[in-house]
Amino acid sequence: MFDLFSDIFTYRDNALTRIDPRAKLLIALAALIAVVTAERIVLPLAVLAFCLGAVAILRIPAKLVACRLAAPLSIVAVLVVIQTFVTGKTPLFAFTFAGWQFTAKAEGLRQGTLLGAHVLGAVSVVFLLSIVTPAHRIFQALRWFRISRNWLEIAILMYRYIFVLMDRVADLAAAQRLRLGYTARGRALRSFTTLAGATIIHSLEQAQRTHDAMRLRGYRGTMPFGPLPPLGRRDRLILVSCLIGIAVAYGLLEWGVSG
Amino acid sequence: MNGIWTKRRNVIRRAATVAATAGTLIALPAQAFAMHISEGILPAPWALFWYAVALPFVAWGLRDLRRRSEDLLWFKPLVGLVGAAVFLISCMPIPVPTAGTCSHPAGTGLAAILIGPGLTVVVASIALTLQALFLAHGGLTTLGANIVSMGVVGAYVGYGTYRIIRRLGLPWVMAAFLAGLLSDWATYAMTSVELAAALHGGESFSAMLTLILLAFVPTQVPLGILEGFLCAGALKFVRSRKPELLRMAAAGGAA
Question: Domains in chain B: how many in total?
């Protein structure tokens, strides 16, 4: 879990990291809307293929991609099976297992597959966004879009101190393991609650230190957000081209292809 | 009579299918993330509806934050750090014996006791955004639904339970245990309602809700109990070591 939660790849220099975060957020939003509203599987799968292609070109480790997609993939599998066997009327095939008869239905399979495609397409869009845009740039862009300053201040503090606390928690957990803190179920539960309690104590103490440090740097209750310059010509061109591309793809794949 | 029996048998059969497949498939990856509704699952109208439900609660929490941070300059760093701690606790894997895998506590009951339900909604909305962006848990399109189930319902049920039990004069350990337990179960019940409302299609809503609830039972019933122990155990640890820190955090909570 902790290995996954890193924006290290966003600091690489490539064509996608150089795009303005506001343009990337708008493009991602348009792609998400297109995927979620799609009524055929072609568009979400095309978006998935595009995003995975971009991820491959950016040379993101396959292990990271697999880890990030593992949970959504398991959800897709559950969705397809549940929808196939629970909803619909037209039987596809049936089998008996442990005395129970299970019947797969065509409508359910179609619905489950579409939902699965939605999940994979949408997850891939957010994944691509997250590996080409650092968190602080996303927060900066969100402020430009007039998202609440207080919400963003707490978000920045949380994001910053998750990593600080993560190191402390990892050390504590390692010390507990060395002292055989997780060898039996009851002991593991006690160790786990102690770890959670220690994390809270660290966070409250760190809050005091952080506040003192912020006051020394002139903090008077609000954090400054650096202003973003107007979107450059190149970014505007990329934004408009991508939005047109998504609209055209939506039109072609949703309405333009018969069947 | 025969018709009723056939209907019941069908429901049991469907429930068995869903429980068996969900249990097996959720156990496939190393860790289960049952309570986040994944990106793309909700149709657009439902995604917008849950955003509309969540936004007033987030706005209320932000108003609360602004009011308190005007008086106490250290309040925002405190909320941010408690949020970071709860985020980490919610990422810690705990073994679920019945599923044979690891799952994660929600942590909203604990957060609500520490900093209050309004601020817990704000913290949960940020944690869910970060998880959607950087961990592929939950999603941006399902953020509203996840805020309602994990933030709003989890926080208010946990906080309400803690306050009611304390008012009844019962020990705080029991109050904390039940706050953790009920906030977890309430979160899972609300997630089931959200999923059933969006996915029931031509089937009846109640039948789909029953199926989803049954599918979650193997992981969420023991996980809720573990979350109760976590909530009570963590608070006990802090109270015994640094009670003055809890008083500081209680500027917004119930501890």
Answer: 1
Residue ranges of the alpha helices (H) in chain B? 2-27, 44-71, 75-91, 108-115, 117-134, 143-146, 154-167, 172-199, 205-241, 243-249
Percent of chain A with pLDDT over 90: 50
- Does residue B9 lie within any of the structural domains? yes
- Give yes or no for A194 touching B (CB within 8 A): yes
Chain B neighbors of A208, CB-CB under 8 A:
74
Largest separation between any pair of C-alpha atoms in chain B: 69
pLDDT at B98 over 70: no
- Structural domain contains residue B160: yes
Q: Residue B131 and residue A187: Cα distance in Å, rounded?
A: 29
Which of A 208-237 lie inside 8 A of B, CB atoms? 208, 210-211, 214-215, 219-221
Which residues of chain B neighbour A194 with C-beta distances below 8 Å?
233, 237
Segments in A179-232 forming alpha helices (H)? 185-216
Q: Report the CATH number at residue B101.
A: 1.10.1760.20
pLDDT on residue A247 = 95
What mean pLDDT value characterizes chain A? 88
Residues 6+ apart with CB under 8 A from B156: B112, B117
| pLDDT band (50, 70, 90) for residue A225 | confident
Mean of per-residue pLDDT scores for chain B = 82
How far is Cα of residue A136 from the mean position of the Cα atoms in its chain?
Answer: 15
Residue type, A66: A
| Residue B123, domain extent | 2-249
Q: Does B238 touch chain A (CB under 8 A)?
A: yes
- In-domain check, residue B81: yes
Mean pLDDT of the region B162-173: 93
ipTM (interface pTM): 0.89
Does residue A185 belong to the interface with chain B, where contact is any CB pair within 8 Å?
yes
Q: What are B103's strand-pairing partners? A: B94
Chain A hits for B76, CB-CB cut-off 8 Å, are 150, 153-154, 157, 221
**Residue B32 scores a pLDDT above 50:** no
Rounded to an integer, the average pLDDT of B223-252 is 84
Percent of chain B with pLDDT over 70: 80
Residue A101, classed as helix, strand or coil, is strand
Question: Which residue(s) pair with A97 in the sheet?
Answer: A100
Nearest by CB: B237 against A151, A160, A194: A194
- Cβ-defined contact of A158 to B238 (cutoff 8 Å): no
The residue that leads in pLDDT, B160 or B249, is: B160
Residue B144 lies in a domain: yes
Q: Which residues pair with A105 in a beta bridge?
A: A91
